[in-house]
Every structure is written in C-alpha cells, then in structure tokens.
Amino acid sequence: MKFFDSSTLIAQGLFEPSLPRKYPFQRIPNQFQKLLRKELWNFSQNSAGVSVTFQTNSTKIRIQWKIKKDFQMNHMANTGIKGLDLYQYKNDSWYYRSTGIPISKSNDEIIFENKKTKLRKFRLHLPLYVTLTDLKIGVSNDCKFLNSQLDSKNIVFYGTSITQGGCASRPGLAHTNIISRKTSYNCINFGFDGNGHLETSVGQLLSKIKANFYIIDCLPNVDMKLIKTNVIPLIESIRSSHNSIDKPIIFVEQPDAHDNYFDENIVEKNMVLKQQVQKAKKIGHENIYLIECKGSLGKDNDATVDGIHYNDIGYARFAKHLITELRKLNIGF
Asked: Model-level pTM?
C-alpha cells in the first residue's frame, strides 16, 4: 500500500490550518499559546471536531495513527476518546462505515474493504479527547487518492466538554460533527473540557476566524455571576475584528437535563443569559441571538451518561434541535 500523512492531508475543523503546529491536528496554532490559559491550551491540542475528507478508488483503506497519551475515562468509550470514524458519501448523504478501534498509543487497522474498484468519497473523523501525533491513510498502490476541498462556510462552536464531544461513543456522533455532515458547513470546535468560561481570550481567537456565525454554548461551566460579568465582554472581543464585526453570535441555553445531578437552578441561569443577550442588544450590539433549549434532549432522561454529559441519543437530539432552531433565525443558514 501507499500512505498519505499529515503533510499531504487536508483537514477540516482547524483554526488557521496553514500556520505551524507542534502536532498536526491540534485545533489552534502554536503562535496563540501565550494568549490562552494552560488548561485551554492543553485541550486545544486534542483533535475534537477535526476531520479529513478524501476520495479513492481503493478496495481497502488502512489507517495508522499514534496518540500522545493513552488514557481512559470511566464514563466515555475508548472509541470516542481516541478512535476514528469513517463515513462514506453516497446518494447525497453521509453514511457510517466503520470505526478505527484504539488498542494502544500506536494503532494500525484496515478500516474499509470492498471488492469493487470505484471512486468513493470518505470522511475520517479524528479522536475527540486525545492529541494525534501522527496519522497515515493507506490505499492500494495502483489506486487514486484525492484530497477533497474544504467547505467554504464556517460555523465556530465555543463551549464545554459537551462541545468537545464528551461522551459520544465515537467521534462521528458528537453534535458538531453531525452538523458538519448534515449541512454544507465546516464546523470548528472550540470545546474545552471544564473550561468554557466565556473568556475574552477565546473571543479574540474567534474574531480572527472568517465564520458565517458563532455559537456560544458555555452555560454548564459557568455560574450566574460569570454570565453577568462575561457575556458582553465576550461579544465585544469577538466583534473586535473586521472578520467578525457584523457576524451573528448565537448563545445557547443550558438544557434542563443537566438538572439531574447538578445542585443549581438551570432556569435561573438561562434567565440571566437571556437578560444579558437583551442588554447587549439594547446597548447597540446587532445580530445577537439566543437559542432556547427546553426539551431539546427529550423528556425521557435517556440523553446523558451521567445526568450531565450527552450520550449518542443526546447528541443526535441536540444536533437536530440546533439545526431546526438555526433555520428559524434570519442568518442565511
């Protein structure tokens, strides 16, 4: 087989993909490390929301990948933490094909086999919670391998461990990846486990991205005091660049399913967020929106693994809810 590595692959979901990186699929380039807190920077090296889209007529696809740290969590499947998902595009939709199942820091697996030689289009979703140090895609020696062009429209998501993908059973089932397949948008994932604090340092990064709109989904990581103090400064930091001066900023409520295990009043937090969004509009900020999330995860309490983090049911429902609500807004979605 012949192999194609990170130097030849074109990845979606990266911020400033042409800038130098220590690891090929870390979400944020090296030059912005000093702008972020250590915790944010460490999680930014995870490849959450990053994917590679390509075409090949090979009857076999082999994936080799190495990860910086081989670790586990007691509430999330290894396939979601450090595995890879392969989808195939056919009949105008993406279909799941298989998963690269991790067994160690270094992994090697045939992820696709088919007897018929024909040109097919694939998308490989990268791990949600580890840092990839190396990735190679192998195809038969006599076959084509073509990188697919990036989607030209961008959505940027800024949020918590849930935005990062915890606890999807595999990478393709995180909601930002579902939305990227269901729409024609390149979804850039700025989810930072436990660190979605509505920070202006992150807002400054968002302002540098040529996004069609920004989705802010941080409420599970902040209390009412931070909502009151941080929402408007975050808006101002995002709007500090010509790239983002008039782009829609969409805040997302905290779904009430979180109330199962948390000793906090979700209704009050959502009300404070609504007040801050209204205040931002009153002082002159335009194109500021709020998506309400009551019932977004269903009424059966089956949408989480622990009352907090979404499982596959939760992510599917949440992605559907966001797509439905975004289409109601006058933002060209």
From this structure: 0.97
